[in-house]
Amino acid sequence: AAQKMSRPRYRDVPVDELVHWRSEGAEATLIAGAWELAGEEVQGPLDELAEHAAVLDLVLAPGALIEVAIPAQDNLVGYVYDGGVESGGREVLSRQMLITASVMAQI
């Protein structure tokens, strides 16, 4: 919130700079920030976002299970484009948003 009035910046991230991560039933394209996916730390190329801001595109196979670890003080916001995700005992369907403090997602 302290940086919301900062001057906007733009930086193009060429596709060859994007970081791709895979594990059984899951794949991610990391755009910005640091992530811990299935116990593995990975970093996106864009590092000019506000502190604690991170962006990735995550694709899960049906029935896949993945743990996304985030610091206790942070929230995770996700948008389900297609299919559904189960997190914390609730189902989030296509075209719905998921907001949580930590996530174990299963489709």
Overall mean confidence score, pLDDT: 86
What is the gyration radius calculated from CA atoms? 14 Å
Strand content: over 45%
| Largest sheet geometry | 4 strands, antiparallel
Give the SSE map.
Elements lengths: L18 E5 L2 E7 L1 E4 L2 E4 L11 E6 L4 E5 L6 E4 L4 E4 L2 E4 L3 E4 L2 E4 L1
Antiparallel strand pairs: 1-2, 2-5, 3-4, 3-6, 6-11, 7-10, 8-9
Report on the structure:
The protein has 107 residues and is an all-beta fold. 0% of the residues lie in helices and 48% in strands. The strands form four sheets. It has a four-stranded antiparallel sheet, with no helix packed on it. A hairpin with a 2-residue loop joins β8 (84-87) and β9 (90-93). The protein starts with 18 loop residues before the first strand and ends with a strand.
Summary tags:
single chain, 107 residues, mainly beta, four-stranded antiparallel β-sheet, three-stranded antiparallel β-sheet, 48% strand
Write a brief structural summary.
This protein is mainly beta. It is 0% helix and 48% strand.
